[in-house]
Write a structure and sequence with these properties.
By secondary structure, the chain is α/β, with parallel strands linked by helices. The protein is 45% helix and 23% strand. The protein has one domain: HUPs (Rossmann fold), CATH 3.40.50.620.
Length: 167
């Protein structure tokens, strides 16, 4: 079986890796650990004004180094556990690259973590896991954090206000 483990530097990706380690059989399973780096060309400052990044090349080089270290650590843990694991770093939109990589490799299963974004955050940031599950041809396992099920502090305040009895 070919498993594409799509990761970033989040705790949700750690949980996705843990799911592979605990749920899949090692024999005959190849795991390809993929990290996709979104290119940067500007950033928005506190005054909400976009600024061009003068040292983009150095920043991108540092990001690639960090991404290679990230996938190497993950693949190393998988190999230590008995999986056949390789690592890949790609540039581009994570949603698009994961879907393309899953099709071209080809993967039998894609495993990725869910950040649990809701509401406006999900609308603005988008959901990589939703896009991947809607567009890949193979099976997808989205590993959700127990924390993702908990309401955000602002949502919890709103809920507690709504539950108060009328005076």
């Amino acid at each position: 079986m070919r498993v594409l483990l799509a990761i970033d530097e989040s705790q949700y990706s750690e949980q996705a890796e843990r799911a592979v380690l605990t749920q899949l059989r090692r024999e005959g399973t190849q795991v390809r650990v993929l990290n996709v780096i979104e290119p940067i060309s500007s950033y928005v400052s506190a005054d909400l004004f976009p600024h061009l990044v003068a040292h983009t090349a150095q920043i991108e080089e540092d990001r690639h180094k960090q991404a290679k270290e990230l996938v190497a650590r993950s693949a190393g843990r998988l190999r230590k556990a008995g999986f056949k694991a390789t690592e890949v770093v790609e540039d581009g939109d994570p949603k698009t690259k994961i879907v393309e990589y899953a099709a071209n490799w080809p993967a039998d299963l894609v495993v990725l973590g869910s950040h649990g974004l809701k509401g406006i955050d999900r609308l603005v940031m988008g959901s990589v896991s939703a896009a991947v599950s809607n567009h890949v041809k193979c099976s997808v396992e989205i590993v959700r954090s127990p924390d993702a099920a908990k309401p955000s502090p602002s949502a919890a305040k709103q809920t507690s206000r709504q539950k108060r009895p009328a005076r």
